[in-house]
Amino acid sequence: MSASGKIAQVGQPVVTRFAPSPTGYLHIGGARTALFNWLFARHHGGKYLLRIEDTDKVRSTKEAIDAILDGLDWLGIDGDGEPYFQSQFEQRHAEVAHQLLDMGAAYRCYMTQDELAAAREKAQAERKPFKISSPWRDRTDWPEGDPYVIRIKAPQDGETVIDDLVQGRVTVANAEIDDFILLRSDGTPTYMLAVVVDDFDMGVTHVIRGDDHLNNAFRQLAIIKAMGWPVPTYAHVPLIHGFDGAKLSKRHGALGVDAYRDELGILPEALFNYLLRLGWGHGDHEIISRDQAIEWFDVDHVGKSPSRFDLKKLENLNGHYLREADDTRLATLASRKLGLSYEELQLLVRAMPELKARAHNLNELADGAEFLFAQRPLAMDEKAAALLNDEGRAHLALAHAALAATPQWEHDPLDAAVREVAERNSLKLGKLAQPLRAALTGKTTSPGIFDVLVLLGKDESLGRIADQMPKPN
User: Fold this and answer.
1) Which of 373, 396, 430 is the last residue of a domain?
2) Which of 57, 62, 128, 250 is catalytic?
3) Are residues 412 and 456 in the same domain?
4) The Glutamyl/glutaminyl-tRNA synthetase class Ib catalytic domain covers which part of the protein (predicted)?
5) pLDDT, averaged across the chain
6) What's the rounded mean pLDDT across residues 166-192?
7) 250 is catalytic
């Protein structure tokens, strides 16, 4: 990143960025922010950059960095080029702070923690919002050797206006903006300084982020204007709430992106589509491909109200993408949960058209496939065991005889054989199919019973049925 970089002017390429703090997993709100930045850049033929804001050395961890990069890669929204790490540019950040100091746009503040605490208590007692009023703002008789911070000289009169692409025109009185710290007493930069310097040096033209940063924008503008840098275009996106309108939490499904993949069995294209529709829309379209998203995305159609995260809707959307997905790919993903051999994987691929029609996630897909690889005698769940009473077992014996005599082990001949048994014995088809399903799968839900018979093969199917038939005296 060049210290002399400049924000792109009108007619120059769009540059966006996603700048997560690596103090935890990549949460769902962060993933959506990354997606919106990625799409905006792609739509305009620009660049999307990734910057890891790792200046909090105590809380930033390699595990969190790896989880963020892995989650973005899985969603297919990794940055253009290698990620930047904010901690690499601390010298540059400090350089700008001292430049502001030399320009008279910042000052050394020697206020002690006790003085700050007393000022805060006074504001509380007077029931006023606390705002720094440093006696050092206009002084230059700085004591040598004493610790100090560098504070911005925030404007005190007038107002600051932001024409936000999402929020519209937002105005704040400059009297509300405090003289925040740029450089700590140990010489390290604050977030407020570092983010502004990095955005300028990286040539960021559009800052798209959560609306919890809107107040920060007014403070950051104090630095930008003091340095005479071009002002980026802001778009502050409303946060995501739970399905009940409350702040998003784990009970709503506020998990890390890796948990949606590893624990909930969500496909990346489903989460991509769902995040896209959280706060943005294109007519009545619910299913939107990656290419369509790039073509259609704009900030104009981002809503001003918080969107609501609904895990059920995500799973329903995921079910659509499961049905559309390649069978070999799905079988490979599901096999990781089942621990299959190569031969078993091939069986799972053949079974996938039937299995994926019933599943909403990879976990359900794997659960639905377990019967294919179960060892005899099968364990029965409670509902399946209830079907195998004396009457059910007697019906199994009738079906076994007919199936054993069927010359072609294919769907239609097997269907015809079972239906013929039902008609001959004045039984509804379900009276035969239900105990058959229980005997073949150990469950009361499965793909179509004749598909199950074909997938298991003749020997295995007849063996499983025989295991549950009445034993001769």
Assistant:
1) 373
2) 250
3) yes
4) 14-315
5) 92
6) 95
7) yes
